[in-house]
Every structure is written in structure tokens, then in C-alpha cells.
Specification:
There is one protein chain. The protein folds into three domains: 160 residues, ABC transporter type 1, transmembrane domain (ABC transporter transmembrane region fold, Up-down Bundle); 113 residues; 240 residues, Rossmann fold (3-Layer(aba) Sandwich). It is built from 18 helices and ten strands. Strand 9 and strand 10 form a beta hairpin. The longest helix is centred in the middle third of the chain and has 54 residues.
């Protein structure tokens, strides 16, 4: 990740890095308190079970009359069952509350990150891969959900149980407990050391799986190109290599984890057997009762299992801490383009917006040494149509980007209806502008909703009227379900010209005072272009329009033509005056019209 976009990550990850989640946990203090209460009650119920078992053995099985023994056993088994019922109810309540918290906090976190990313300027997306953002929204939030909704609860529960078992063991049998603790240390330390190796291998395995996913996403988004170059076998082999690397990494992780599991089971069994041996010797010597021995063995089991679970939870906490850090990096990132604290209100124009560029100079963040615009000045009267022409890379699209405040100029200012656009709220500014891009964006929904995207509150009749004005109604009605037809991802079910007419209808529905057309008819055939050009000319009435065009035939009737070259305004005037001037525009016109 480029350092210019995201903050540098810490060199070490600790569970304290999860502190960034506190703002997302605070609104649910009541649920957290209840979950902790049920967690403690479940732990207490678990710790009561060995005491109930001891009473059963020492009193329920004590020599007595047959009838008395049967009654005593029933009472003790009833007590054990009552403890089990309490444990089940408290555990179920804890599980529900903690799972609810995990789902709720994850949803809030995912929404916050997504909403924050949507407000970043294009500068962020120039240096950040979309796949990286999606990975943080999915994989990282899933890790956080695992910890908040499961691992953290398990860790707290086993911590309480382990501490309680330790206290009970020290209280009831300090001599045996001293020996058990020494052996426990010999189990825990190697397990922690080996657990770190398992975690490193787990991360490596996840990286290899991510590589496979990246290859698959890239190829599936370029299927027509892959098939046109008959590269199916090559891409299948590349994906197979990637999955083989992922498999090998998973095998190394599994081997290491198997060794760790074997060590924990064997060492824990040795610990239990040693405690049991010492306990049986004490029973034979008459220093403790058989029930006391059973109680001790159960507490040792609870302590050992708690230690094992805490080791697993610690690894999960480390992974989630890293995920939390990455999510916090996105949430703390501030876009360089912000709405002013006290925005001004521009007057509502009646016949289109007035525009003014005053000595604007701008460099793209990814190309700081090359000026995209240099000393650019232009005044556009309300209701006028101005065409921007020039060779590729001249700065035409940059004019649109600055006007929409995707970026702010390094020098100069831009005024909309007499107000500097940096003094307007971003939403208010962009609501006054409609754009038809060269590569129209079609969403994975119906034709109706794609057009309604321009004005979400528009009625079906208004949507259809915009479609008719853009000459899109005819082909939409011929779709299998008309306006309700699902258009596919990125509009794959439509031709290029049809997608463009959907985009034009969307801009018409918005009905803004300022219209930006970026090669709006480039993907249309001659007949469709004539129809849409007539529709655009109608839409241009009573509004200001800026048109980017490489085909000069589409801008001959513009009120004013501006010629850009290497980021500078080199010529301006009408089609006739520019052709007569014999400059850059005349050369472009000669090339196109001669051809």
C-alpha cells in the first residue's frame, strides 16, 4: 500500500490494538453488561459442578440403608441436574448476546468504513487497489466479528473458569496444586512459542488464498479478452499453480498445528494423570476423601482446558487486532476534498449556471511533475454551450474533474454562479451538475432503477419521459421485461450505444442547470447519434453545457469552442473563426473532415 495513501502500519501487533473498536461497542453497553453477567454466571455454574460431584461421592455413596442411599442419590443427582440446567441457560443467554454483539458491531463497522470510503476523493483510488478496500470490508471485518462474537467471550469465560479452578485447587489441595502448576508452566511456554509459528504459517496460507482470489477476479472480469486470445488453458494453469501454492502453504500450517495439538493433548494428559496419581496416593493415605479426589481432577481438567482455549483465543486476538488496525487506517483517513464548515448558498439559476475558471493550475497527485492544467481561464455565460476539444491528454477531462471537485486546484479558483465552488457544500455543488461520461456506468439492477439513479424520488412516468427524450424508450420496451429488465453486471446485456442512452436519460432526469457531456455520443451508430444529438440539443436549452468531443462534427454548432493543448488554452472561438485562424483546431478539422 503506498505510503501516500494509507498510514504506515505498526511493526508489532498486540491485542491492545483492538481499542479502535471501543466507539463501536459503546452504544451497546447494556448488552455487553448482560453478556458479562451471564458469562460469569455460566462460569460459576461450571465451577459448582465439581463441588456437587464431591458431595455425591462422599455423601450419596456413603454406607447407609438401601432406602436412605437411594433417596440421597436422587437428591444429589437432582442437584447436579439443576447445576447443568443453570449452566445451559446461562450459556445460551451468553451465546445469544455475544453473537448479537458480534453481528451488530461488524455491521456498524462495515457500514462506517464503506460510507467513509465513498467520500474519499479520486486521489485515494489512484493509489489504492479496489481489491484492497474490498478485502478490508470483508475479510478484516469477518475477523473482527469472530473475536467480538466468539473468541473474546470464550477468552473471558475460560479466564474466569481457569482462575476459579486455580483458586479452588489452591484452597482444597495446595500441595498437589504446587506440582500441577510447575507442570502447567512446562506445557504453556512451549505451546505459546509453537503457537506463534502456527500463526505465521496461517497468515502465509491466507495470503496464498488471496492470490488465487485475485487471479480469479481479474480473469473473470476479462473473459472476452481471455477467450479472444484463446488463453483459457494458460489462465487455468496459472490459477492451478496459485491454488497449488495455497495448498502447500495450508499443508505446512496443518502439519505445524497437528504437532501443536499432539503436544497439548499429550502434555495435558500427563498433567491430569500426574494429578490423579497424587490424588489416589492421598486417598490411600487417608488424607483426602474419594469425592475430594474427583473434585480435584475436575478442577485440573477445567484449568487445563481453560489454558488451552486461552492460547487459541490469544492467536485470534492478534489476527483481529491486525484487522482492526487496517480498518482504523481507512476510518482515520481524511479526504483532501472536504465541504466547508460554513458553506455558502448559491442562487438558483433560471437559465443555466454561470461558470468561471480563473488562472487555474492543477497537477494530479500521481503525476506531480506534469501540469494537467496550467493558467487555465474561461468564462461561460448562463445557457451557453461550450465545447472543449484537443488531443488526448490536453486536460479536457481534468476541467470536468475540477468542476465536480474531485480534486482542488493548486492555484486559481473556479466560480459557479459567482460563488467559489470550495465555499459550496459538496452535495449542493454536485446536485447542480449532471454528467454523461464517455464510459457510462450501468448498475446491476433494472433499466427503470438505472435511469432513476439520476433522481431517486422520480416517478415511473418521469423516468419514462427521460428515456423517451434520450431515445432509449424504444429499445427498453423491447427488452424481455421492459423497464423492469435486469441489465446485468456493468450492463453486459446492452450494447455500448444502449448503455450510453441510459446514461443520457439518467442525466436528463436529474435536470441540472449545468450539464457535462464527455463524448456522450461516442458509442452510438450514425442513426442513433442523430437521434440522441437532437435529444441533447433539446436538453441543452435553458441550461449551461460543457461538451468534450474528439469528433469535431458534433461540436460545430456550439456557441463557443475552447482548444486545449498540453494543459493550456491555446485557441477559442466559433467553428468558422477557428478554422479560418489556421491553428491547432484547423489542423484537427482538416484531418477529420478530409478523412
Amino acid at each position: 500500500m503506498p505510503a501516500s495513501t494509507l498510514p504506515a502500519r505498526p511493526t508489532a501487533t498486540t491485542p491492545t490494538s483492538l481499542g479502535g473498536l471501543l466507539p463501536f461497542l459503546r452504544p451497546y453497553r447494556l448488552q455487553i453488561a448482560l453478556a458479562l453477567l451471564f458469562l460469569v454466571l455460566a462460569a460459576v455454574a461450571t465451577l459448582l459442578f465439581p463441588l456437587a460431584l464431591r458431595t455425591l461421592i462422599d455423601q450419596g455413596l456413603a454406607p447407609a440403608g438401601r432406602g436412605e442411599q437411594v433417596m440421597a442419590l436422587r437428591e444429589h443427582f437432582a442437584l447436579l441436574f439443576a447445576v447443568a440446567v443453570a449452566l445451559g441457560l446461562f450459556s445460551a443467554a451468553r451465546f445469544y448476546l455475544v453473537s448479537w454483539l458480534g453481528e451488530r458491531v461488524t455491521a456498524d463497522l462495515r457500514n462506517a468504513v464503506y460510507s467513509h470510503v465513498l467520500r474519499q476523493s479520486p486521489q485515494f483510488f489512484e493509489t489504492t487497489q479496489t481489491g484492497e478496500v474490498l478485502s478490508r470490508l470483508t475479510t478484516d471485518t469477518t475477523l473482527v466479528q469472530t473475536v467480538v462474537g466468539s473468541s473474546l467471550s470464550m477468552g473471558l469465560r475460560n479466564g474466569v473458569m481457569g482462575l476459579g479452578a486455580l483458586v479452588m485447587l489452591v484452597w482444597t489441595n495446595p500441595y498437589v496444586m504446587t506440582q500441577v502448576l510447575l507442570i502447567l508452566v512446562l506445557v504453556v511456554l512451549p505451546s505459546m512459542w509453537f503457537g506463534r509459528r502456527v500463526r505465521r504459517l496461517s497468515r502465509a496460507s491466507q495470503d496464498r488464498v488471496a492470490d488465487s482470489s485475485a487471479i480469479a477476479a481479474e480473469v473473470l472480469n476479462a473473459i472476452p479478452i481471455v477467450q479472444s486470445y484463446t488463453a483459457e488453458d494458460r489462465e487455468a494453469a496459472r490459477f492451478a499453480d496459485s491454488t497449488r501454492f495455497a495448498f502447500e502453504a495450508a499443508v505446512r500450517r496443518t502439519k505445524a498445528r497437528s504437532v501443536l495439538v499432539a503436544f497439548i493433548i499429550i502434555s495435558t494428559a500427563a498433567l491430569l494423570l500426574w494429578g490423579l496419581y497424587q490424588g489416589t496416593q492421598a486417598v490411600l493415605a487417608g488424607t483426602i476423601s474419594p469425592g475430594h479426589l474427583g473434585q480435584t481432577v475436575l478442577y485440573v481438567i477445567i484449568l487445563a482446558s481453560a489454558v488451552a482455549v486461552l492460547g487459541e483465543v490469544y492467536g485470534d486476538l492478534l489476527r483481529a487486532a491486525g484487522a482492526s488496525e487496517r480498518l482504523m487506517e481507512l476510518l482515520t483517513l481524511e479526504s483532501p476534498v472536504q465541504s466547508p464548515a460554513q458553506p455558502l448558498q448559491a442562487s438558483a439559476p433560471q437559465g443555466g449556471s454561470a461558470l468561471a475558471f480563473e488562472d487555474v493550475t492543477f497537477h494530479y497527485p500521481s503525476r506531480p511533475a506534469q501540469a494537467a492544467l496550467s493558467g487555465f481561464s474561461l468564462a461561460v455565460q448562463p445557457g451557453r454551450t461550450v465545447a472543449l476539444v484537443g488531443p488526448s491528454g490536453a486536460g479536457k477531462s481534468t476541467v470536468f474533474g475540477l468542476l465536480l471537485r474531485y480534486y482542488d486546484p493548486a492555484q486559481g479558483r473556479i466560480l459557479l454562479d459567482g460563488v467559489p465552488i470550495q465555499r459550496l457544500a459538496l452535495q449542493a455543488l454536485r446536485e447542480r451538475i449532471g454528467i454523461v461520461p464517455q464510459d457510462p456506468v450501468i448498475f446491476s439492477t433494472s433499466a427503470l432503477e438505472n435511469i432513476r439513479y439520476g433522481r431517486p424520488g422520480a416517478s415511473d412516468e418521469e423516468v419514462r419521459a427521460a428515456a423517451k427524450a434520450a431515445f432509449a424508450d424504444e429499445f427498453i420496451e423491447k427488452l424481455p421485461e421492459g423497464y423492469g429488465t435486469f441489465l446485468g453486471e456493468r450492463g453486459v446485456r446492452l450494447s455500448g450505444g444502449q448503455r450510453q442512452r441510459i446514461a443520457i436519460a439518467r442525466a436528463m432526469l436529474k435536470n441540472p442547470p449545468l450539464l457535462l457531456l464527455d463524448e456522450a455520443t461516442s458509442a452510438l451508430d450514425a442513426q442513433s447519434e442523430r437521434m440522441v444529438q437532437a435529444a441533447l440539443e433539446s436538453a441543452m436549452k435553458d441550461r449551461t453545457t460543457l461538451v468534450i468531443a474528439h469528433r469535431l462534427a458534433t461540436v460545430q454548432q456550439a456557441d463557443h469552442i475552447v482548444v486545449l493543448e498540453h494543459g493550456r488554452l491555446v485557441e477559442q472561438g466559433t467553428h468558422q473563426t477557428l478554422v479560418a485562424a489556421g491553428g491547432v483546431y484547423a489542423r484537427l478539422a482538416a484531418l477529420q473532415f478530409t478523412a
